Amino acid sequence: METDTASDADILYNELYSFDTETLLWRNLSDTSDAPMPRSHATATLLPDGKIIYIGGVIKHPFRNQTTLQPMLNILIYDTKSFAWSTIEADASFDVHPRIGHTAILTPDSNSIILFGGTSTLREELLF
To answer: Does the keyword Repeat feature in the UniProt annotation (predicted)?
Structure first.
């Protein structure tokens, strides 16, 4: 299967939903007033304090119809308690290349997120 994240046919979303595993109901958490631009192919890592850290991925500019890899130092945060988005700029002493298709995991001490792999190619062939 080939994924073309730069295609005119691709639609990226910035909606946020919650699925209750007990009641089996979906809830729309989206608040368009502070939601980030639609994004795809980012990792999401849940922290013990209820914040979700989104790293990497691509955005599609609505007016230019152009897809752009997002800087790895531009970190999106969603607070599941206050239902609010924020952005922070991380720091690095080396170049962390923008990417999609990477994986992320929180370390057992909850102090670090480890990223692995990915690609900076927007046309990516995925094998299943």
So the answer is: yes
The whole-angstrom separation of Cα 5 and Cα 2 is 10
Domains of the chain: 2-125 (2.120.10.80)
Reported pTM: 0.84
Q: How many CA atoms lie within 13 A of 114 on its CB side?
A: 7
d(CA 47, CA 80): 10
**Half-sphere exposure (Cβ direction) of 92: Cα atoms closer than 13 Å:** 11
The Cα 124–Cα 127 span in angstroms is: 10
Mean pLDDT over each residue of the chain, to the nearest integer? 86
**pLDDT tens, position by position, 20-56:** 999 999 999 877 678 898 899 999 999 999 999 999 9
Angle at Cα 59 formed by Cα 76 and Cα 62, nearest 5°?
A: 125
How far, in Å, CA of 119 to CA of 124, rounded? Answer: 8
- Spatial CB neighbours of 5, under 8 Å, sequence gap ≥ 6: 40, 41, 58, 60, 67, 100, 122, 123, 124
